[in-house]
Amino acid sequence: MSSRAALLRSRPILGYATSTWAIRSSWRLPMLEMDGIDVRYGATQVLWDVSLRVGAGEVVAVMGPNGSGKSTVLKVAMGLKTPSAGRVVFEGADLTRAPATARPGAGMSIVLERRRLFPRMSLRENIEIGGFVLPRAEARAQMEGVLALFPELVPHLEASAGRLSGGQQQMAAIARGLMAKPRLLLMDEPLLGLSPALQTRAFQLMADINARGVAILFNEQNAALSFRLSHRGYLLESGRVVLTGSGTDMLNHPEIRRVYLGEAAA
Ligand SMILES: Nc1ncnc2c1ncn2[C@@H]1O[C@H](COP(=O)(O)OP(=O)(O)OP(=O)(O)O)[C@@H](O)[C@H]1O
Ligand SMILES: [Mg+2]
Question: Fewer CB near the last or first residue (10 Å), C or N of the chain?
């Protein structure tokens, strides 16, 4: 593991854990475990025996060509799609058949692609909604903490969300996801439609979020950025996991370098 990754992993847990045992065991036990997942849409099977795990405090990327099943993996984790086989276990609780609405209370937040804000409500209201599972005082404190991560949103808090730029809306969707104090953030294409400068900003933000102790499972087309940020990654092809390893291993794998990073075959 790189020293940066080690830092990202060790810092948050020290803040959360109450005993040495908790520190040690949190590394050994996966936080999210997806095991042997099959998914069908009608008669068509689109995921085959997909197994994936996210440890406490880890950033995990799912990569793959268009249509390989990345969003479907995220949907199963989010409770938006029930698998035809396999299990989804989060912190020891079986959530395979639990609906998406049960996720925030369980410590998982969802950031969907295409943002899905309420356009006529203010930016502030849109973000506050994410904290509905928290008591009021706690939600207020969390709002302050979240806004500290997004200084660029502060001047626009009273504007209608529909008037914000695409980049600001995407930041707002992430801010909303953080309001529920998740221990795991699930993100389907968090950088979709962002300019290169904003993509870099969004990745920095994901690193900052992770440094505060939040694990992240996401899928994103940009392999170079994704695997650099991630502790571990998975490569999907036609609905199957064909490669998995540390972020660095994934980044250095010849197939990934050739197909996703556009390098000529040696
Ligand atoms: N609601 C649906 N009904 C039927 N088939 C679907 C549905 N959603 C996805 N699929 C199919 O499932 C497969 C996996 O789709 P998925 O959206 O998970 O892929 P993806 O890797 O996220 O693709 P992209 O890179 O385009 O976002 C594809 O063949 C897709 O056509
Ligand atoms: Mg997708």
Answer: C
**Signed CA dihedral, 136, 137, 138, 141: sign only:** positive
* pLDDT computed for residue 192 by the predictor: 83
- The band of 265, judged by pLDDT with boundaries at 50, 70 and 90, is low
Residue 247 near residue 5, CB atoms below 8 Å: yes
Q: How confident is the model at residue 264 (pLDDT cuts 50, 70, 90)?
A: low
Ligand approaching nearest to the C-alpha of 63: 1
For tokens 């899905």, what's the residue? 116
Whether residue 114 has its Cβ less than 6 Å from ligand 1: no
Angle, helices 166-178 vs 196-211, to 10°: value is 10
- Ligand positioned closest to the Cα atom of 65: 1
Atom of ligand 1 nearest to the CA of 236: 21
Q: Residue 164: which residues within 8 A CB-CB, separation 6 or more?
A: 123, 156, 172
| Complete domains list, the chain, with CATH | 1-13+31-107+182-195+211-266 (3.40.50.300), 109-181 (no CATH)
**Ligand 1 atom 12: the closest Cα is on which residue?**
46
> What's the pLDDT tens digit per position in 168-217?
898 899 999 899 889 999 999 888 878 888 888 888 889 999 998 999 99
Higher pLDDT, 95 or 101: 95
Q: Is 77 in the pocket of ligand 1 (CB under 6 A)?
A: no
CA distance 131 to 99: 18
Please give the distance, rounded to the nearest whole angstrom, from the Cα atom of residue 81 to the centre of ligand 2: 14
